[in-house]
Amino acid sequence: MMRQAPRRAADYGPIAFPAAMLLLFFAVPFGLMIAVSFFQRVEGGFYEPAFVWSNYARFLSVFFGRVLSFSMLLAAGVAVLSVALAFPFTYLLTRLRRRTQVLWLVFLLSVLSLSEVIIGFAWATLLSANAGLTNLLVMLGLMDAPTSLSPGLGAVLVGIVYQAFPYTVLVLYPALSRLDPTLMEAARTLGSSPLKGFFTVVVPALRNSIVATLIMVFVFALGCYLLPQLLGRPQHWTLSVLITDQALFQANMPFAAAMAVFLVLVSLGLVGLSLLVGKKENAA
Amino acid sequence: MSGLALDGLTKRYGSFTALQPTHLTIPHGQFVCLLGPSGCGKTTLLRMVAGLDSPTEGRILLDGTDITHKPAHQRNFGMVFQSLALFPHLTVGENIAYPLRIRGVPKADQGREVDRLLGLVRLPGVADRAVSQLSGGQRQRIAIARALALSPKLFLLDEPLSALDAKLREAMQIELKLLQERLGITTIVVTHDQREAMTMADLVVVMSQGRVRQAASPIDVYRRPADSFVADFIGMTNLLNGHVSAGSLAVEGGALAVPGLPASGPATISVRPEELRVHREGAGPNRLPGTVSFIRDLGSHVEMRIDVAGREMIAVATPQDRPMVEPGQRVGVELPPTSCVVLPS
Prior knowledge:
Chain A: It is found in: Cell membrane. Chain A: It is a multi-pass membrane protein. Chain A: Pfam families: BPD_transp_1 (PF00528). Chain A: Belongs to the binding-protein-dependent transport system permease family. CysTW subfamily. The complex is a heterodimer of chains A (about 280) and B (about 350). Chain A is mostly helical. Chain A has a single domain (about 60-285), classed as Orthogonal Bundle (MetI-like fold). Chain A is built from 13 helices and two strands. In chain A, strands 1-2 form a two-stranded antiparallel ribbon. The longest helix of chain A is centred in the first third of the chain and has 33 residues, at about 60-95. The model of chain A has no long low-confidence stretch (mean pLDDT about 85). By secondary structure, chain B is of the alpha+beta class. Chain B has two domains: about 5-225, Rossmann fold; about 235-340, CATH 2.40.50.140. Chain B is elongated. Chains A and B meet through helix 8 and helix 9 of A and helix 2 of B.
């Protein structure tokens, strides 16, 4: 196929509509948010236009530092758990028959369509003492009495990993299905058991895809704000929860905007990093 | 019993039979070529020997020991894949050292072994390069070196040279044969290229439709094909169908004296193009009259296509023996009795 670089202004025509949409619904609101983040809050009221750094200066508090580092650690934990679960799963999935693969992918997509609220309440029920999974363990004689596992850090992790898992599989799927199956066969003839071959060939051959996926899931988990509230205690609340709280309940729009801008910049930085890693993989 | 033995080895996928029950014995140190068109079951056979596919029925014996159900990673066979399957995340040296690393061989010994193997495939000093920096022929050698790293009992190659251009392929065929002779390693190569099989093999196993048609030395396969498929697949040939009557074969255009004919009934014979003799006179013993339809002079040999009673026959002559004939000329084609091979019908 011939591909020519656009030369005249009219050549850019096809992208005019999406560009306008992006400008209208992303660039403009984001610009407004950046502007608001420098505005002055009016106590008991709303905010007034100004140019102050005070909203950003509040990042330098212990409380903010604690929330930020918890958010980062939680997102990192979710990313590692999701990829650790999804990578072997996706590898086995790509070895199945085409039809079975399609069925699984459709199922995962439908999980992806569940709202965060439903996921949160479903897990809250599943992890509760009254109707939860521990009742099953008691029935099997593995536990003495049913206990509540929610709210807690474990519950938050389970909820977000559940939500991130289909997403992770879908991101890993193209790379794993492109992997030459004879690599694994070669590893077997050279003396690797299937498990050893998986760790010495499949994982290292796709290390860049794994890193890129980790960053993607990390960014995804960083934006989570409902599940930490539904399944966690206040100390498990993330930066996103704090932003919602500031914006909706404390009516401190400038500070919420400043935090949102910060979060977007961190996310963009990480996505950029993942693109860079992906580019290196393609070049190799 | 020493060597590799296949005892009724069979592979079925549902109702499709990829490999009919196959019996084959390969003594130690032999170079075997599994030769046939695509889909004939040759790769299936090789993969079962490697342990990558499990047979539906039958056994695989190595030196009398049943290895049918031994997992691939415990067989210690070296295998070269059609795609080469070099690990993209490892350097050349790390690729070759992979089987050693898996077995916990000390680093220093790994390095020595890599150098020795690179010397063996005549590519010294590339251990630190990335696989992507090598040419097709060089990658080929690396795949061979890696497969030989364990000094395997069996060396298996699945269409190893198919990705190379014609000239390089010829050179690699000779090199592979010399390497095998030097190491004395039992080798099985899958190929669809009969020249490749003729160049390298001690034993050619011709297969089609999941069945072994003939297993013999290259020259036997060529001179004494077991059936019309083998005769046609290996090189060019002239196949003539006829009827036996009064001790000779009646074909379109005349009667031929052929040794080894059945007492009566239909029979097919195969005659190689270079065995045919073209005469300017139509009459003579074992001669069929015909008309030259096309001549092509390829420099090293001359190929003549002759219309004999409506069927085309091909004759090949060296430039020195070239008969003085022109297209359109009426000629006599002689089929020397000893060069005619009677094929089972």
